[in-house]
Design brief:
Blueprint (H helix, E strand, L loop, with lengths): L3 H4 L5 E9 L4 E9 L14 E4 L1 E3 L14 E2 L4 E4 L3 E7 L6 E3 L9 E3 L4 H10 L3 H21 L7 H11 L6 H7 L5 H7 L5 H18 L1 H10 L10 H19 L3 H13 L3 H12 L4 H15 L3 H12 L6 H7 L10 H13 L1 H4 L5 H14 L3 H8 L10 H15 L6 H11 L1
Parallel strand pairs: 1-9
Antiparallel strand pairs: 1-2, 2-7, 3-6, 4-8, 5-6
Helix pairs in contact: 2-3, 2-4, 3-7, 5-9, 7-9, 8-9, 9-11, 10-11, 12-13, 13-15, 17-18, 17-19, 18-20, 19-20
Amino acid sequence: QFKRWYVQAGTPTVDVSESYDAGTQTYQLSFKQHCKPTPNQPKKLPFVIPVKMALLESNGNEIAIQCDGNFNASTSVLLLTEESTIVSFTGISQKPVASLFRDFSAPVNVNMNYSDEDQILLATKDGNAFNRYNAMQSLYIDVLSVLVKNIQSDIPKSVDTLVLATLEDSGLSNAITSYMVSLPSFAVLRSMFAPVDARALTAAREKLQTHIAKQFESHWQGLAHSLASAQPYEFNAEEAGRRSLHGKALNYWVKAGSLEAITYAEALYRAADNQSDRLNGIGAVLNSEDSERAEKLLAHFYRQWHQDTQMVETWLTLNASQDRFDHKQAAELMTHEAFDFTNPNKVRSVLGVFASNFEAFHAGSDENYQFIAEQIVKLDKINPQIAARFTKILESWRSFTDDRGIPMKKALEYIISTESLSSDVTELVQNALS
């Protein structure tokens, strides 16, 4: 049965519901797994799904588990093998909070309607770092879903409660804290909001990010200073975590609108003896409103590293990852002496990064899609395999609302109307349109 993970396409979804009977002190979890139909596989058979879990009291302590399910006490794993599984837990004196799929025990989508109180408990007191992070991400996604529908909605107090609890928890490592305060990426959010209204989603994420930045500006400022280090660069987990949180704090501090933060970011870039600090510094400036300073630092970066191939590719990436980037700037960047259309790494550094820059590419001009289509046609004559990979940028047109989806579809139609296309590109575009 486990082999079904290899032969059945798609990601399973597990729907979870709960009930508690105080009279019998019994808690019950109901699991239902399903997987969407895919070509040639309309019906999927049940997967083997391991659920590493715990039941938590209101103070976060774990409850000893006694149940009638296929549960391994030594590994804390409940095994699901049927389409529907109901498990009863006995000797439960108060309604618990289920901490499920700890440590990402199975690559599945999970639907469980936690109350706000339960979600806060998981995000602040769960002993499993992955589930604390996951609960925090779920809260962000819930807030963003409201803002996408109505950008005028208020940010709930629960966001402030959880961010503050995270920042003040001395038991968390810098690395975990950095992940906890990071909003879900657009790559993650796209799968949560189909069909995707790109402009609404970008506005929603911007509002939430700006709120967190301004609400905790003094915390970000304090972290940026306290996490700075004058010691020589070291490559280890602890230092990597410090640099990660340092960069995250600096970006939030800049996002709060502080001129002092932008000056600090520039100083970090210029004084850096390692790439992480260098990119933390220049990245924060590039995402600020100070476009003049951003251009100055990009020019300095290129002068300093123009003879290093990998650093030149990084410079191209920095340009294309800016929020303000568009097809006109991409076309201009591709005329620079550093760019070579026959070099796949440099093409990916500009076109690939631009296309994955959700805010610039999807929330911007319709012409961004036509520009990419024209580059795919041009690239197809040089490197059909790379051109085929870039068509994947447009193949998800159906997952967007019409204001984005229709221009993406037109770009695909432009590609397929071109004569002498390679079979690689032709097949992928035809599949995307059919």
